[in-house]
Design a protein that fits this description.
This protein is of the alpha/beta class. The chain has seven helices and 15 strands. Helices cover 37% and strands 14% of the residues. The strands form three sheets. It has a six-stranded mixed β-sheet with strand order 3-6-9-12-14-15. About 4% of the residues have low confidence.
Length: 248
């Protein structure tokens, strides 16, 4: 028990630059308190003391603002940062080294008792503030969920999910190694190269349109050189790719 507590404190100090020492983490971090009390509640739940497990979970919610059902399974070195408003459902499973920020819901969309209704987070998952992960699917190892994302389907390992409904950004598969900065812990699930795939598609369309306009200008110049006169667009109506790219 104490070795696991030391692990949890060390992992919090590693991931939170505001944490100054172990005593501060032990006495002032509600996420750690919620994890400790969940351990008690889960032990009661699995040994048949269902009411006592729920009561301990209720006390933990009052004192920390974090609601974890006693039936949920939580791995080692899980860090709930700030934590207020976090809700973790009965059949949720959280792997080792996961990080969860405030306002996150690991919820279920099914009403069938006994079924796997809540998500499973594999090792090292990061879920940003306000994200909603809803359903009995898995979020792959090392995946990141951006703040306020609404995730309704499985997320592959190493991918990032952003938006509502969440869109999946798959890690570059060209074989290039990640830089040291990219391998570092990403607070709130934010990464430098985690662009929205919809925005990327819009940029590609804008650039393609700009290339087509350039080709049309070349064709018009060639026709003019051959003595064929074509009406030219008014300058104000010309396509401004640079201005549009700045909007996204």
């Amino acid at each position: 028990m104490f070795s696991r507590l030391r692990e949890d404190i060390a992992s919090i100090i590693e991931r939170d630059p505001a944490a100054r020492n172990g005593w501060e983490v032990l006495t002032c971090y509600p996420g750690l308190h919620a994890i400790i009390m969940h351990g008690w509640a889960h032990a009661c739940w699995t040994h048949g003391f269902k009411w006592l497990g729920r009561f301990l979970s209720h006390i933990a919610r009052i004192s920390t603002g974090i609601e974890i059902h006693p039936g949920a399974k939580i791995g080692r070195r899980v860090f709930i940062d700030h934590g207020f408003g976090v809700v973790i459902g009965e059949t949720a499973e959280i792997g080792d080294d996961c990080t969860i920020y405030q306002g996150v819901t690991l919820g279920g969309t099914s009403l069938h008792k006994g079924a796997k209704r809540h998500p499973t987070l594999r090792r090292g998952v990061i879920i940003g503030a306000g994200a909603q992960v809803l359903g009995g699917f898995s979020v792959g190892e090392g995946a990141k969920i951006g703040s306020n994302a609404v995730v309704l389907k499985e997320v592959p390992p190493g991918a990032t999910a952003i938006g509502n409904p969440a869109r999946i950004v798959v890690k570059d598969a060209t074989g290039r190694q990640d830089t040291a900065a990219a391998r570092m812990f990403a607070a709130y699930g934010v990464t430098a190269n985690g662009d929205d795939p919809m925005v990327k598609a819009l940029h590609d369309l804008i650039n393609h349109t700009a290339a087509q306009e350039h080709q049309i200008d070349l064709i018009l110049s060639a026709l003019k050189g051959s003595g064929v006169l074509c009406e030219k667009l008014i300058e104000d109506q010309k396509f401004d790719a640079e201005r549009l790219n700045k909007l996204f």
